[in-house]
Model the fold of this input.
Amino acid sequence: MGTDPQVALHAPVGERIYSGRCGPIVEAGVALRQFATGACGARDISSGTATFEPGACLPYHRHNFSEAATILEGEALFSVHGRSYRLRRFDCIHIPVRIPHRVLNVSEGEQLVAHWAMATSTPSREWVEEEFPIQDRSLGLPEPADPEYIVRFDLAPRYELAQGTQFCDLFAGRFGAVGICGGYGQFSAGSSLPCHIHEFDESITIVEGEAVCEVSGKRYRLSDCDTAFVPRGRPHRFINESAGPMAMIWVYAGNEPERTIVDDRYCKGAPYSDEIGVQVARTRNS
Done:
């Protein structure tokens, strides 16, 4: 990326770019990194990654807000009240408010990397000392009465938002999430979305290839879990100018994904406001 990997770029009331290699908080073999949080002005949203050394475990804990975890590398054993699921690359689990859960890297030789998103600007956890009887769910799915929700990436419905792109929703209000939604998007070489805005703050983490993030006339190159925080109402788009595929995990501070497409000149730096913006189309994923 075109920035110091330890420094966030900041335009007043604007976007910030965080390196995927920023300094972590390390707890018993788990390196926790924070990207979009209240520290950069994010409202009701936070995101980051957790890197687990072989065999490392984040013990049972819970949150006072919705959380979604998406596996980026390795294989996780994710336990919820003792119901234990194996999650593989880009599988996603949503954990509702106050539900105890823990995460284990089952590998003896490989790291586990997970992307996390929470419906709060101040991420925190409460440790739970209680243990729960193990119910091995393996690669299965929760039962209808279970509070957790899992999207298996290989089975998730795909949709196209622009030529050369493939998207799938991984967590949203319709899956039980409250205050956050998000998913996976892949861009083939040369593809991009049109310039657009949202009615909520957004975090975008690049998980494959290299992306150009264009925001109100500024351009940033992102890769290796580099993350862009884009505030509500700021024109932006992501472009794949490389020769290979590019992919992202996107998170919105809203229950369901939606966007308003605006003229491309606003991404290139033309002054934008709600009054002068040219609204071309409005889309809501389903």
The chain has two domains: 20-154, 158-284. The domain at 158-284 is CATH 2.60.120.10 (Jelly Rolls). Residues 1-12, 275-286 have pLDDT under 50 and may be disordered. The longest strand covers residues 46-52.
